[in-house]
From TrEMBL:
Record-linked InterPro entries: DDH_dom (IPR001667), DHH_sf (IPR038763), DHHA1_dom (IPR003156), Oligoribo/pAp-PDE_c-di-AMP_PDE (IPR051319)
SUPFAM superfamilies: DHH phosphoesterases
Pfam family, one: DHHA1
All copies of domain DDH, residue ranges: 15-153
DHHA1 domain ranges (all copies): 232-314
Organism domain of life: Bacteria
Gene3D superfamilies: 3.10.310.30, inorganic pyrophosphatase (n-terminal core)
Source organism of the structure: Clostridium manihotivorum
UniProt protein name: DHH family phosphoesterase
């Protein structure tokens, strides 16, 4: 299905719920917030569905206070639910079991399961927000600074401030178009990155001090136990800034972070040039992109998870 066809489907709907993946990152939040505002501007009864509240470093986004974890399923009379930036059904941040309306899936994950009634997946888009920018144009919804701020945030977070290999000329062109709406890229950057609790820096220091190198220095291995989080008395929402620091080491190709969570282990994987981390993650039911993926491993200890995943990386690196 083309994006124009998706747009036409959306135009046929009136009451529209919009959601994303659980534990929303900047791309997920920015995409949902911008599409919701745009649909309201063209007269749709649009609202957002989220099981989680938004993290502190994204709470500067316009209307983000409406992402408070209170609306977890479609409201009565909803014609359609649009799911953004979410690769698989299990990770959708909405209860859809009893939903009889249309499900539209718009995403950029290589591992997308095509779980929607209508699906649009562009793996070349650096962020889902690139697709949403196009969609907003096709829908003829007027752009404004609030929408631009949300979309720009998505681009910044999913490209690591335009430094990852996924950023293309399209990404930069869209960014420059958004900047015309009088938004401050510097303020956005500060809100996202220079806004950490003191404990987060302490944690980062601890994790970096304990980082190990494996496979001839090609892999940086990090871990975060519940124990250290308890010691620092903190709840960790996002660790993508920590894992990416592993890639700063000379000679490293990949970085992996094992994090002890309730009921198992969350694994994050990143790579620089050739290691296909999506392939590694998919072996364990995870997924994502070629250079950034994740796995949720249930009922497993940190040590067991490390053994299994490191063995798999050894095959690929
Ligand atoms: P992160 O490591 O920052 O949590 O996620 C990196 C990428 O992998 C993101 O694109 C995210 O959507 C995807 N991802 C993270 N965790 C999982 C998971 O448990 N399952 C799947 N399929 N994808 C994941
Ligand atoms: Mn994304």
């Amino acid at each position: 299905m083309t994006l124009h066809e998706i747009a036409n489907k959306i135009l046929q709907m009136n009451k529209i719920g919009i959601t994303f993946h659980v534990s929303p990152d900047g791309d997920a939040a920015g995409s949902v917030l911008s599409l919701c505002q745009a649909l309201r501007k063209i007269g749709k009864e649009a609202y957002m569905i989220s099981k989680d509240a938004i993290s502190y470093n994204l709470s500067f986004l316009p209307f983000s206070n409406m992402l408070n974890g209170e609306c977890v399923k479609p409201k009565d009379g909803t014609d359609c639910v649009i799911i953004l930036d979410c690769g698989n059904k299990e990770r959708i941040s909405a209860e859809l079991d009893n939903f009889k309306g249309t499900v539209i899936n718009i995403d950029h994950h290589m591992s997308n399961d095509l779980y929607g009634d209508f699906n649009y997946v562009d793996v070349n888009a650096a962020a889902t927000a690139e697709i949403i920018y196009e969609l907003i144009n096709i829908l003829n919804a007027p752009m404004d600074s609030d929408i631009a701020r949300c979309l720009y945030t998505s681009l910044v977070t999913d490209t690591g401030s335009f430094r990852h290999s996924n950023a293309t000329t399209t990404t930069h062109i869209i960014a420059s178009e958004l900047l015309k709406f009088n938004i401050s890229h510097s303020d956005i950057h500060s809100n996202i990155f220079d806004n950490k609790p003191y404990e987060k820096l302490k944690l980062t220091g601890y994790v970096l001090s304990n980082t190990e190198l494996m496979f001839d220095g090609k892999l940086a291995v990090m871990e975060i136990s519940k124990d250290i989080l308890n010691k620092l008395n903190m709840i960790l929402d996002d660790s993508s800034d920590i894992i990416s620091q592993g890639l700063q080491i000379r000679g490293v190709e990949g970085s992996v972070l094992f994090r002890e969570v309730d009921g198992g282990v969350k694994v994050s994987l990143r790579s620089k040039k050739y290691l296909n981390v999506n392939k590694v993650a998919s072996v364990f039911g995870g997924g994502g992109h070629v250079r950034a993926s994740g796995i949720t491993m249930k009922d497993i200890s940190l040590e067991e998870a490390k053994k299994l995943v490191l063995n798999q990386i050894k095959e690929e690196i």
